[in-house]
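Try it yourself: sequence plus T4K, in.
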Amino acid sequence: MSDKPVYVTQPYLPPLEEFLPYLEQIWANKTLTNGGPMHQQLEQALCDYLGVEHIALFNNGTIALLTALQSLRVTGEVITTPYSFVATAHSLLWNGIKPVFVDIDPVTLNMDPARIEAAITPQTTAIMPVHCYGHPCDVDAIQKIADTYNLRVIYDAAHAFGVKDAGGSLLRHGDLSVLSFHATKVFNTFEGGAIVCPDAKTKQRINQLKNFGFVDEVTVIAPGINGKMSEINAAFGLLQLKHIDQALARRAEIDARYRAGLAGIKGIHLVEEAGQTVANYSYFPLLVEAAYPLDRDALYQRLKDNNIFGRRYFYPLISNFPMYSGMTSAQRNNLPVANRIADKVLCLPIYPALDDQDIDRIINVVRRG
Ligand code: T4K
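Structure, out:
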């Protein structure tokens, strides 16, 4: 095993010397957190870049999800997808909300809107879909159901930074969209996250909730949390933004090289980009079907043996973790598509610094079977 290890992702790190002036500014003004100048600049810069009206920054995507639910006073039951990172459903449990899982669409791998209505009960107050891998949900169908039943829609848009559909930013849909800026994401602030919200009033409530519920020095209106992004994280975000177009362009090239190199392999199904006018190529998922000589886990291991560390996002399904598996909606017979896909999916490495030689090495291992 002589080749260098290649991991599923690697954070995009601009040259270190470019970060130093930001640090000097922080040192000079001595505001380290609590909504300082870097924080304010990043909020504005992200609104401009993403084409949205209001953004509230957070210290990570999970706290942003928790706070998004709090800000809309969501209670009771929330309909969600089992095919996601576990933080999606955990944000519900942490709020004392019962997740109700519905199956996914076999093509988009996102929540299947045709399954939502049957899962609605008098306790249902909201839907929490995920734009999995940055591929858009069927936002129109979801909104129609939400309007009919008077439900809130909170998108877990952790993977959807920069994605656009025909009408503009994907993040404009629903009541709120939640981003993650974790190190493994397309755009990162080491740790970080954000809520995209439609109006200044909602943002004000979110800002209060992420700062313990403080309205002013002596007034606390809710049991808020500490969800604030620090100045150093915000500064890194400002620097990342300068490089983001270049990073996304390289991701697009990698995606294209994989698609060309992996085309026509029997039993290897490449999950299609669909519905977006601008994609972010945040993941490269493929499905290992029965016609391939190895099963998914054997291919995963074969790649590992060649120092290539793909990941089985999202296996196991959230609904199969012990804190969820006893729930009625988590039963396998309610989620046949999600269970099938979770057993077949493998995400190949994709990140801007991945070079063509490594991509070809990965393609060759998959091709050899
Ligand atoms: N909703 C969805 C749909 C999400 O996918 C996520 C997070 C969230 C909500 C919650 O957002 P945050 O609270 O995280 O902001 C990772 C991430 O920790 C997690 O953020 C992400 N989703 C999830 C899909 O993936 P792991 O357990 O796969 O991470 P880890 O540490 O194994 O990293 C994967 C690879 O990346 C490593 O093999 C090497 C590389 N890496 C990783 C880190 C952290 C680096 O090269 N440098 C690094 O600093 O969960």
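One thing you can check immediately is this: Residues 7-11, 60-62, 84-85, 87-88, 130, 156, 158-159, 180, 182-184, 193, 309, 311, 313 surround T4K (CB under 6 Å).
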